[in-house]
């Protein structure tokens, strides 16, 4: 026998409907409820709330805190920041004790240069380019270049090579290394070593289309150049011009086309950087040794890529890493 639930379901629905009608009937009429927004307050009440927030006269609060709470909060933050300042000063004092103002903390292979100096050049047209370009016999085109060279060489004038004690070594008589007892004194550098042609009175050769480019070794603390012990160690590029006790220089065109267009060179002084100017130990009045490379007949109106290399037994040369080398471009219009 199958039981039928449908009549029971219909009866339940009817009963529930009657109950809802009775609940919504008030005094014989049906009341419909609606949702009313909560009271948001008047403008005066809001203004009063804001005023009470800034100063509550009943509880004695300012900006929601009592006077004692403000005192304790200020003391806490004063102590907190005082501890931070003290900690920073303590760390700075510890670091300060590890520094030496006369020598770097990291030396030798631990330094960034790793006892392998690179070359620098002047004039530098700008910090973001290495192109040296000018128009022959046009002072307006090369005056920024000559001014850059003149400003750099001004530090090598005799009146500017001074120390607090006035002690500098005259190295004219040395043709080998200086004795170790003089390593902590600066060796005076004479601008006469740079030759009679590369001077500001002749616009450093740019007026004649034979520019003089200044090269120098970057300073590496306590670095000593090493000489080649025998002829088999001397690179073939400098074998014909090699002289002991000198860091030699050699410039050439990067590509075969550059080598055809670059022309001949003159080096002043021809031997390069003499060993007597090393080591660099942050001596007062120290000036790095210089070499002028004069381009005798570069091809006009052609961009020439130039690479110059320094040669000593303990100088590693790598064109990609710019170790022991320097690259720049030359364009004479």
From TrEMBL:
Keyword Transmembrane belongs to the record: yes
GO molecular function: ATPase activator activity
Membrane topology: Single-pass type II membrane protein
A Pfam cross-reference name: Na_K-ATPase
GO CC list: sodium:potassium-exchanging ATPase complex
Taxonomic superkingdom: Eukaryota
GO biological process, one term: intracellular potassium ion homeostasis
Transmembrane segments: 70-96
Location in or out of the cell: Membrane
UniProtKB keywords: Membrane, Signal-anchor, Transmembrane, Transmembrane helix
Family recorded in the similarity comment: Belongs to the X(+)/potassium ATPases subunit beta family.
Protein name per its UniProtKB record: Sodium/potassium-transporting ATPase subunit beta
Natural source organism: Mytilus galloprovincialis
Upper classification of the organism: Eukaryota, Metazoa, Spiralia, Lophotrochozoa, Mollusca
